[in-house]
Specification:
This protein is α/β, with parallel strands linked by helices. Helix content is 44%, strand content 9%. Helix 2 packs across helix 12 and helix 3 crosses helix 9.
Length: 395
């Protein structure tokens, strides 16, 4: 891989020389120092070596990426029909978190973002649990306290993100440093958006990582927009990856719509973490849809900007690659989509049949043992609810 210093210089030159108008940077990946395994037709580019992934794992990743896309399709409909109050779309972003998760072992810890349901699925979390979280029902380990798609589960070594973007980056460094001090072989990965690079926590975490070299991989998912803020307004640097140069953190840029490339660079960074320390990886991708269900991207971007990314769809590219290897065909594709839709419908039915968490659960999980103040507040709440129910029963 190219050294951090040379990558920053080359990227700046490329940025100046690019023609006007909408251009997908993946089209000129080599010139932009964006690492790739396959092109838009699923053919090997000759840049990064073809990763050695067992066929069953490769197919499982692709099937999970399709499920993630199908979840997004249905989640948007559920929100628009009023059955889910909020939705955070993830169409076009499937390759980053699925490729990265596949590169880690189940004993490793992942601090996920809010567009990454594939992390949960690849770790073996049941689909119905995801929909219980979307609906805020009893099957949600967070007991309905979080916005839909803000998932996580410590039983699977997955730490949930927060809506305060980037605030969890120093915590990930602390987790990784604790493992290093203990002599533990566990590795850590944290995913965040490009907007997080403007927060102080990002710089504190990178500075700590450069000095102390904890085994953590930072994945900056550069999807083009921090809500409505484009990269040109977000930063004056040519890449987000090169920000690691200031802190002595190894860094590189990868094609975020190429799941094989993401897997390759993340796997290498993970494996060298305990010896070499942290790596900052910028995954260049694009948010094809809305930021959230409360957003209207037509107010800040042109359709032409979106259209140039369509040929680089991460699902299409990986499917073509699998077809070239004779691992996939149209019959399997149609069967997969049918299965995904059926499993999602079943999960929705099961999740909506669950009870809502009781109000008393809001006092759980704050402390290992409830304080007297929380116990008092809980008692008052339960008494008020009982009195309200008594009055309702007398009507």
């Amino acid at each position: 891989m190219k050294s951090p210093k040379s990558s920053a210089t080359d990227a700046k030159t490329t940025k100046r020389d690019q023609p006007p108008g909408p251009v997908c940077p993946l089209q000129n990946a080599a010139a932009n120092n964006i690492r790739q395994v396959i092109d838009d037709q699923g053919k090997l580019t000759g840049d990064l070596p073809e990763p050695d992934i067992a066929p069953e794992k490769l197919l499982h990743m692709y099937e999970t990426m399709v499920m993630v896309r199908a979840i997004d399709d249905r989640g948007w409909i559920l929100q628009r029909s009023g059955r889910i109050e909020f939705w955070i779309p993830h169409c076009g972003l499937e390759a980053v978190h699925n490729g990265a998760t596949l590169a880690y072992e189940d004993d490793d810890w992942i601090v996920m973002g809010y567009r990454h349901p594939g992390v949960m699925l690849l770790r073996g979390v049941p689909l119905v649990q995801l929909f219980a979280q979307f609906f805020g029902r009893d099957g949600d380990p967070f007991k309905g306290r979080r916005l839909p798609t803000l998932m996580g589960d410590r039983r699977y070594n997955i730490v949930p993100t927060t809506t305060q973007v980037g605030s969890y980056l120093p915590h990930t460094c602390g987790m990784a440093m604790a493992a290093k001090i203990k002599g533990d072989a566990t590795n850590f990965m944290v995913m965040f958006g490009d907007g997080s690079s403007s927060r102080g926590e990002f710089h504190s975490a990178l500075n700590f990582a450069g000095v102390h070299k904890p085994p953590v991989v930072f994945i900056c998912e550069n999807n083009g927009w921090a809500i409505s803020t484009p990269q040109s307004t977000q930063t004056a640097s040519a890449t987000y990856a090169e920000k690691g140069d200031a802190y002595g953190v190894r860094n590189l840029v990868v094609d975020g719509n190429d799941a094989l490339a993401v897997y390759s660079v993340v796997k290498e960074a993970r494996d060298m973490g305990h010896d070499e320390g942290a790596t900052l990886i910028e995954a260049v991708t694009y948010r094809m849809g809305y930021h959230t269900s409360s957003d209207n991207p037509d107010l800040y971007r042109e359709q032409a900007d979106v259209d140039v990314w369509v040929p680089w769809d991460p699902l299409t590219r990986l499917r073509k690659y699998l077809e070239r290897r004779k691992l996939w065909n149209k019959k399997k594709e149609d069967a997969l989509w049918t299965r995904c839709k059926a499993e999602i419908s079943a999960a929705i039915k099961a999740a909506e049949a669950m009870d809502f968490p009781t109000p008393a659960t809001m006092f759980d999980d704050t402390y290992e043992e409830q304080t007297w103040l929380l116990q008092e507040q809980k008692a008052h709440l339960l008494a008020d609810i009982a009195e309200l129910e008594r009055r309702e029963g007398q009507k």
